[in-house]
Specification:
Number of domains: 1
Shape: globular
Low-confidence stretches: none
CATH topology: Cytochrome Bc1 Complex, Chain D, domain 2
Number of helices: 3
Structural class: mainly alpha
Radius of gyration: 13 Å
Helix content: 25-40%
CATH superfamily: Cytochrome c-like domain
Number of strands: 0
CATH class: Mainly Alpha
Distance between the termini: 34 Å
Order of helices and strands: HHH
CATH architecture: Orthogonal Bundle
Mean pLDDT: 90
Largest sheet: none
Strand content: under 5%
Length: 94
């Protein structure tokens, strides 16, 4: 049995953990796939993740995949936004 390495300072690994703990209730555990409530998030930019997570808004000029406005702001994730964005950016956008 292989032991899993702790994420340490790896933003993608930290983002994977934060995404799994906070985003998968609405978004698919696989960010390249549509979730039950939220869209696929693979390839999302830092600006989009920051705006959606911290303010429940979209960055200027962005056209949402779904215009549902169901996602609430989650300011408690402020310290993890960069890591979540790094994780999502590690997948090619579909």
């Amino acid at each position: 049995m292989l032991a899993c390495s702790p994420p340490g300072d790896n933003p993608v690994a930290l983002g994977r953990q934060a995404y799994a703990a906070n985003c998968t209730a609405c978004h698919n555990a696989d960010p390249t796939r549509e979730g039950t409530v939220g869209p696929a998030l693979a390839g999302s930019s830092l600006a989009l993740v920051r705006a959606r997570v911290l303010k429940a808004e979209y960055p200027p000029g962005y056209t949402p995949k779904r215009d549902s406005h169901l996602m609430p702001a989650q300011p408690f994730l402020a310290s993890q936004v960069d890591d979540i964005a790094a994780y999502l950016d590690s997948f090619p956008a579909k």
